[in-house]
Design goal:
Chain A: This is Sugar ABC transporter permease. Chain A: It is a multi-pass membrane protein. Chain A: It is found in: Cell membrane. The complex is a heterodimer of chains A (311) and B (481). Chain A is mainly α and 311 residues long. Chain A has one domain: Orthogonal Bundle (MetI-like fold), CATH 1.10.3720. Chain A is 73% helix and 0% strand. Chain A is flat, with a radius of gyration of 25 Å. About 3% of the residues of chain A have low confidence. Chain B folds into two domains: 160 residues, D-Maltodextrin-Binding Protein, domain 2, CATH 3.40.190.10; 208 residues, 3-Layer(aba) Sandwich (D-Maltodextrin-Binding Protein, domain 2), CATH 3.40.190. In chain B, helix 4 links the parallel strand 1 and strand 2. The N and C termini of chain B lie far apart (72 Å). The chains are: A mainly alpha (311), B alpha/beta (481). Chains A and B meet through helix 2 and helix 13 of A and helix 5 of B.
Chain lengths: 311, 481
């Protein structure tokens, strides 16, 4: 895509080298402030984290503490808690990403077709997203509460005996995931809505003229043309879900609900670092989590590059 | 005239006014007169800074300004303010508020700011971080079982007897066992407020029917495991329900208390040594204690799966003769209007001096960079006021550690609370380790295994194996202290 346009003839033969020299530094110069901040606030802390993970650093003592090499890594990789929390995190990611993509696409398609009051639907679907997590958690603890909760009450009206949404180890994570979907749906919904509006009307018209019905137009025109948005939404959701902490901590309670059935990886980091005061070990776990996320992002990168080339 | 050159982007923002000497290249970031026609970057920044300063200054004059100053800039609390952190909800929370209000009424010049945080690990996490962040409360509550960890982390101010004596807080006025527990490596770090043991509740109606009461309507003393088992069987028969109930499901701390009581009565000793670095589990006694607990649930004298609400409702509705629980549920049980009494957990085994699980709430002064003599005195005045109000606290079930209250006629007449006050002599605190104490990993791991034992999912031998493995895993973690 990038083509070098020969500007030299217009600028004159003598001015050209000086201008080029100046331009040579303009790019890096403009990037420099960002680079410095990036080094200071991203690369630096990650490197520091890596260093700390090799020490038995304590929260309550200054300094790094005794060097333990890879012992922290050995402990994390053989710890049942580490694998449990990682599995909870992955399961939570599946439970949120799939419904979020499917539901927000469906809602965006419907909202797009509405002729009047479209703004109302947009507002209504987007509204939960602006709520702070503490408000969402407060509302959903009432919805899910045992015996006095809204959900159990509503289900009992139709004769369904519901489990303890937050007290049953099998249900606590799906319950938090459902609250998360309700809360963050608006964001993916807006992304899909924007992408839908970018689909040129003439493509759809051409497909219609060629005899494609609404279902075929949806399957073979609309959904493929939303491919990039879907890929973006998916990776954003996967990364956000792998980092989940707030709503699990607030809705399921500290310690991750009954038998720790909803404890996420980040909460494990928090518990190790701040509750158990083992900062070195917490740094190890968070570095391992960082590697997992890096791997997920790399996979997404590879897949999206292949699809780009395919299209 | 110099050759025109393209100005850099930072130069364009405030173009040089005519007539002003151009700065040499490379020094363009030096201050220069702000442009008059268009607000330059600098003038905007300056205005914003002035606005912020003015705002802060103005806010400083009002009440909310101090909050803003403390929140944003970490300013010290104004003199005469006292922050106090605790972890009391429910009936305890209400009584603590009553005690705080009594202090307020007596000290109108002091602004008391109490904060109640979620019980257990979250509370200790916040207390630790606030203290490390040099913004600790003036006074805080702790469990004495957590004291060694806090003290070893240098998060507490050691208390000097000279300061304490000024306020009448002398050793002779505290329960000796709790007072001893408030020390770490020979220094006093806390002022105990109470001792709260695991106790036995009995349903008066059911026990009368079962012939377990004496003429005065009190439970006849039970001695030894055989007698206790027989009493449970008689109770179960009388009510057609359970002999005793207890909170087991999702309640590892409660399970731990029950097993720990029996283990200590059998002379099982310390469990952990070297501040938690070694496991000294007495496997034979651990298994004997487990076998007794499993026998009670196995014979259906106690349900093996029940939660806290279930235990209270079965007990208060007369479907169980006894309930094993912390004394702090006395308010809950009283509110049901059921007739009941309370005694200390009987002596089930006489291999060792009487023992029962207990812990204490105590008042501590977290380490603070800004505690001068006046602030220390204010903090101790508040502590004294709470201790003098121990009778209010005792109504919630806790046995006062403040002897002037415990020896008072008023407390000795308090029923059923005074009936188990003799439990303090056998108070067995959790073994010291950085992972032990109220609501800690130790209680979760060990209590979790007890829960499986009571639910019939582990045999006593299997329980000991599981307990040993869990304790060794905890002990193998490098200590952060």
């Amino acid at each position: 895509m990038a083509v070098h346009s020969p500007t030299a003839p217009a600028a004159g033969p003598r001015a050209a080298p000086a201008a080029v020299r100046r331009h040579h530094w303009a790019g890096p110069g403009m990037v420099l402030p960002f680079l410095l901040l990036y080094l200071l606030f991203m690369i630096g802390p990650v490197a520091y984290n890596l260093v700390v993970s090799l020490f038995n650093t304590s929260l309550v003592h200054s300094g790094l503490g005794p060097f333990v090499g890879l012992r922290n890594y050995g402990e994390a990789l053989t710890s049942a808690d580490f694998w449990h929390t990682l599995w909870h995190t992955v399961w939570f990611t599946v439970l949120t990403t799939v419904p979020l993509v499917a539901l927000s696409l469906a809602l965006a398609l419907m909202a797009e077709r509405v002729r009047r009051w479209r703004w109302l639907f947009r507002t209504v679907f987007f509204a939960p997203y602006v709520l702070p997590v503490s408000a969402v958690a407060l509302v959903f603890t009432y919805v899910y509460a045992d015996r006095i909760g809204l959900l159990q009450h509503l289900l009992s009206l139709v004769g369904v005996t519901s489990p303890g949404w937050l007290s049953d180890p099998r249900w606590v994570l799906p319950s938090v995931a459902a609250a998360t979907v309700w809360w963050t749906l608006g964001f993916t919904f807006v992304l899909y809505l924007a992408a839908l509006q970018d689909i040129p009307a003439d493509v759809l018209e051409a497909a219609a003229i060629d005899g494609a019905g609404p279902v075929r137009r949806l399957r073979h025109v609309v959904v493929p043309m939303l491919g990039r948005t879907t890929a973006l939404v998916t990776v954003l959701q996967v990364i956000a879900s792998l980092k989940v902490f707030d709503q699990v901590y607030l809705i399921a309670g500290s310690g991750g609900g009954p038998a720790g059935a909803a404890r996420s990886s980040v909460e494990y980091v928090y518990d190790s670092g701040f509750t158990d005061m083992r900062v070195g070990y917490a740094a190890t776990v968070s570095f391992l989590l960082f590697l997992v996320m890096l791997a997920v992002s790399a996979v997404w990168f590879a897949v999206s590059r292949r699809t780009d080339q395919g299209v | 005239m110099p050759r025109r050159r393209r100005s850099a982007f930072w130069e364009r923002a405030g173009a040089t006014p005519a007539g002003v000497v151009r700065h040499p290249p490379g020094r363009t970031l030096m201050p220069r007169p702000a442009e008059t026609s268009r607000p330059g970057r600098r003038s905007v920044l300056r205005a914003a800074a002035a606005l912020a300063l003015g705002g802060a200054g103005a806010a400083g004059l009002t009440g909310c300004g101090t909050a803003v100053g403390q929140g944003l800039f970490g300013a010290a609390d104004p003199a005469g303010t006292l922050t106090y952190w605790n972890l009391f909800g429910g009936g305890d929370g209400t009584r603590m508020q009553q005690m705080e209000n009594a202090f307020r009424a007596a000290h109108r010049a002091v602004r008391l700011r109490p904060v109640t945080l979620a019980w257990g690990n979250p509370y200790y996490t916040k207390l630790t971080l606030a203290t490390l962040g040099r913004r600790p409360p003036d006074v805080a509550v702790t469990h004495l079982s957590r004291l060694p960890t806090l003290a070893a982390s240098s998060l507490l101010t050691p208390l000097r007897s000279a300061d304490l004596e000024r306020h009448g807080l002398t050793a002779a006025r505290f329960d000796p066992r709790a007072y001893q527990q408030a020390h770490y490596q020979g220094s006093l770090y806390a002022m105990p407020l109470d001792t709260h043991p695991f106790v036995l509740y009995y349903n008066t109606a059911v026990c009368r029917k079962a012939g377990l009461l004496d003429a005065a309507g009190k439970l006849k003393p039970l001695q030894g495991s055989t007698e206790f088992t027989a009493a449970l069987a008689a109770g179960a028969k009388a009510c057609g329900g359970a002999g005793a109930v207890m909170s087991i499901t999702n309640d590892p701390s409660m399970c731990w208390r029950w097993w720990w009581t029996c283990y200590r009565q059998l002379g099982g000793g310390d469990l952990l040594a070297g501040d938690g670095r070694t496991v000294v589990l007495d496997e034979d006694r651990a298994e004997r204690a487990a076998a007794y607990l499993a026998r009670l649930t196995g014979r259906r004298l106690m349900p093996g799966e029940l939660d806290q609400n279930g235990a209270v409702s079965l007990f208060t509705s007369g479907k169980a003769a006894f309930m094993l629980d912390g004394e702090w549920d006395v308010t809950t049980v009283q509110s049901t209007k059921a007739a009941f009494g309370m005694v200390r957990v009987p002596r089930l085994f006489d291999d060792a001096p009487y023992a029962v699980w207990a812990d204490s709430h105590a008042l501590i002064l977290p380490r603070s960079p800004q505690r001068d003599a006046a602030r220390l005195d204010l903090a101790l005045t508040f502590v004294t006021s709470l201790l003098d109000d121990s009778y209010v606290w005792a109504q919630g079930g806790h046995i006062p550690a403040w002897l002037p209250t415990r020896d008072s006629r008023r407390y000795r007449d308090l029923r059923p609370q005074a009936d188990y006050a003799d439990a303090v002599a056998g108070a067995a605190y959790d073994p010291p380790a950085w992972y032990s104490g109220a609501g800690s990993d130790l209680e979760t791991v060990a209590g979790g295994a007890v829960g499986l034992l009571l639910g019939g999912r582990l045999t006593p031998a299997g329980f000991v194996r599981s307990l040993r493995a869990g304790l060794r895993e905890l002990a193998s973690r490098p200590s952060p202290l």
